[in-house]
Amino acid sequence: MKSLEMHKQFTGKLLYMQDQLYYYALQLTENQDDAKDLVQETSYKALKNRKKLHNDNNVRAWLYTILRNTYINFLRSGHNRQIKIDKSDLNQQLINTPASSEDTPDALLIKKELHEIINMLPGVYGQPLQMFISGFSYKEISDEMEIPIGTVKSRIHLGKKKIKRAYLD
Asked: Where are the domains of the chain?
C-alpha cells in the first residue's frame, strides 16, 4: 500500500512539473512541437525509471536532468527533426565529447576556440561555466565557490551569453 501511495505522490509531482518542463524544453528546442515531444519522452523515462530516484526531494532536478540528457541524445543521434540548436549548448556538448580520430578539423577548431573564449571570460563567469561543462551540478558549483545557487545559474547564463556574442562578432 505504501508503494502505491509513493507512486501516486511521484505522479502528482510529475504532472505538476509539466508546464515547467515544457518551458525548459522550449528554451532548448525553440519549437513547440519538439518541446512537447521532449516533455513527453522525459515523462515516460521518469515513470519508467521511478525506482532509480532515491530521494523524492530531488524530483525537480532529476526531471530536468532527464530532459536535458534526452535533448542531448536527440542531437547526438541525428533524429532531431530540425531541432534548432542553441550554439552555446551545442558547443558545450562538443567540449564534453573527447577528441577522436573521427572529429573533423572544423569540430576540433570549434573546441579549441571555445576553450580559448571560456579562458578569456572573467573568473566569475569562466570558473562556474567551466565547472558546469565538466559535469558539476549547480549545487556542487555553489558549494565549491561558496555562492548561492541562483548566482551560479546567473553566472553560467551570462557566461553563455558572452560566448554567443563572441561567436556572432
From this structure: 2-77, 87-168
CA nearest to 17, candidates 67, 52, 54: 67
Does the pTM of the predicted model rise above 0.90?
Answer: no
- Asked if the domains at 2-77 and 87-168 fall in one CATH topology, the answer is no
Q: What is the pLDDT of residues 42-77, one digit of tens each?
A: 999 998 988 888 777 778 889 999 998 888 877 776
Query: Quick one: CATH architecture of 87-168?
Result: Orthogonal Bundle (1.10)
Q: Which CATH architecture has domain 2-77?
A: Orthogonal Bundle (1.10)
CB 71 within 8 A of CB 28: yes
- For residues 152 and 128, the answer to whether their CB atoms sit within 8 Å is yes
pLDDT at 80: 43
Residue 80 in grid coordinates: 532531431
Residue 48: C-alpha distances to residues 11, 13, 27, 102 (Å): 11, 15, 25, 34
